Amino acid sequence: MQKVKAWAKKLKQQVLVLYLAYKHDRVPRYAKLFTACVVAYALSPIDLIPDFIPVLGYVDDVILVPLGIMMALKMIPREVIAECEIKAEELMKKDKPKNWVAGTVIILIWVAVLLWILLNFPFGMGFAGAV
């Protein structure tokens, strides 16, 4: 159980490193875009595969998120990662970092996607196509 906790803590720290790297000037634009997607997905309460589906539900948490983190870290210059790792460690020691703006943006994106789906695909509930 201790190994699982250590792995989860390392994963959280890596997501924080990616978030800090996303805001760094020396990170290429394509890496920023990919990094933003990985961080948003890792922090999002909505999964590609819902957790209630046996076995497959945790595939994204155990495979997709770490794979995305690994790929994003390879796109970012090593010096930037080292710099962001130091900042992330400091933030993790002080207090758990909270970014209400990022959280709000993620929630608004999911709400917009849900509204778009509801308004564009009639589900027999009278949401769309009533004209």
Describe the fold and architecture.
Residues 31-67 form the DUF1232 domain. Pfam families: DUF1232. The chain is mostly helical. It folds into 2 domains: 2-98, no CATH class; 99-131. 69% of the residues lie in helices and 0% in strands. The chain contains 5 helices and no strands. It has helices at 2-22, 29-43, 59-75, 78-94, 100-120. The longest helix has 21 residues, at 2-22. The mean pLDDT is 82.
Overview in brief:
The protein has helices spanning 2-22, 29-43, 59-75, 78-94, 100-120. With 131 residues, it is an all-alpha fold. The N and C termini lie far apart (57 Å).
Any key phrases for this structure?
5 helices; mainly alpha; 69% helix; 131 residues; 2 domains; 0% strand
Number of strands: 0
Give the % helix: 55-70%
Largest sheet: none
Tell me the number of structural domains: 2
Domain DUF1232: 31-67
Keywords: Membrane, Transmembrane, Transmembrane helix
Protein name: YkvA family protein
Membrane topology: Multi-pass membrane protein
Write the layout of secondary structure elements.
Blueprint: H1 2-22, H2 29-43, H3 59-75, H4 78-94, H5 100-120
Helix pairs in contact: 1-2, 1-3, 1-4, 2-3
InterPro entries: DUF1232 (IPR010652)
Membrane topology: Multi-pass membrane protein
Subcellular location: Endomembrane system
